[in-house]
Design brief:
The chain has helices spanning about 70-80, 90-110, 115-135, 140-160, 165-175, 180-190, 195-210, 215-220, 230-240, 245-250, and strands at about 5, 10-20, 20-25, 30, 35-40, 45-50, 55-60, 85. By secondary structure, it is an alpha+beta fold. It has a four-stranded antiparallel beta sheet, covered by helices on one side. Strands 7-2-5-8 form a four-stranded antiparallel beta sheet, with helices on one face. A hairpin with a 2-residue loop joins β3 and β4. The longest helix has 23 residues, at about 115-135. It starts with 5 loop residues before the first strand and ends with a helix. Keywords: DNA-binding, Transcription, Transcription regulation. This is HTH araC/xylS-type domain-containing protein. InterPro entries: AraC-bd, Homeodomain-like_sf, HTH-like, HTH_AraC, Tscrpt_reg_AraC-type_HTH. Pfam families: AraC_binding (PF02311), HTH_18 (PF12833).
Length: about 250
């Protein structure tokens, strides 16, 4: 199975029980191995190559079908889905595979209230991934707080990067001062919040350049740039390529 780079407007899960391959998500390369789960959020781009004989499940759903309302379940879903690759041991994966078997069985047979049954199993699926994520963390409460702020910031960036590029906007949404937010990002990632914002702009531009045929000037406008030439200079300074050259070289 070989796919060209593309993007989805829905959540995408690839659960691999056994197999090998390569999976590029938002221009980061991952190896496909036994007992792993990939999760993509809407808007992310990916390119997938699975070798013959790979076994597992592919699941896609949008927020109209599954979007937890309960505060704790929302947190669980957010944490689990914000990690693109979950590497699991065989025992944990076996438990997840039983849940996936149930989802597939319900979808195939469409029994009474099968959609509610599938949603309940998705709850269990993400709870198990959340538990595994928590088990792998060896950190202080302060680090946990910093991680929570970082995850919330990254979600806000994905939602608002087209219209808001100021640190003050994101600090206010997170109920922090710009100094506090910069300190947390510096401690967590070794960079400033402004650098993180610029990286998100470039990431979204790359997504559009390689996964769509949208003209460069339209991409610039969609990212909030009134002057496409300024966007082109910014992109070249960040990547070493003008946008159209980047598209031709990497697509």
């Amino acid at each position: 199975m070989v796919e060209k780079i593309h993007r989805h407007d829905f959540f995408f899960i690839l659960a691999v029980a056994k197999g090998r391959g390569d999976h590029q998500i938002d221009f980061t390369d991952y190896a496909v191995e036994d007992n792993c789960v990939f999760i993509l959020r809407p808007g992310q781009v990916h390119q997938l190559h699975l070798k013959k004989g790979t076994k597992g499940y592919l699941i896609g759903f949008d927020s109209r079908f599954y979007a937890p309302k309960n505060k704790k379940k929302k947190q669980v879903f957010s944490v689990a889905s914000f990690t693109n690759l979950h590497k699991l041991n065989s025992k944990v994966y076996e438990g997840l595979n039983l849940i996936l078997d149930c989802i597939f069985y319900e979808y195939l047979n469409k029994f009474t209230m099968y959609e509610e049954h599938i949603k309940a199993n998705l709850d269990l699926f993400f709870i198990e991934l959340f538990r595994e994520n928590e088990n792998q963390k060896i950190s202080t409460s302060n680090n946990n707080y910093n991680q929570e702020v970082l995850e919330n910031l990254l979600k806000l960036l994905e939602e608002h990067i087209h219209t808001s590029k100021q640190v003050t906007f994101y600090a206010k949404r997170l109920h922090l001062t710009t100094f506090q937010l910069n300190a947390i990002i510096k401690n967590s990632l070794g960079k400033t919040c402004s650098q993180l914002i610029n990286e998100q702009i470039i990431l979204e531009a790359k997504r559009n350049l390689l996964a769509t045929s949208t003209q460069v000037k339209e991409i610039a406008y969609s990212l909030g740039y009134d002057d496409p030439s300024y966007f082109i200079r910014f992109f070249k300074k960040s990547t070493g390529y003008p946008p159209e050259s980047f598209r031709q070289h990497f697509k």
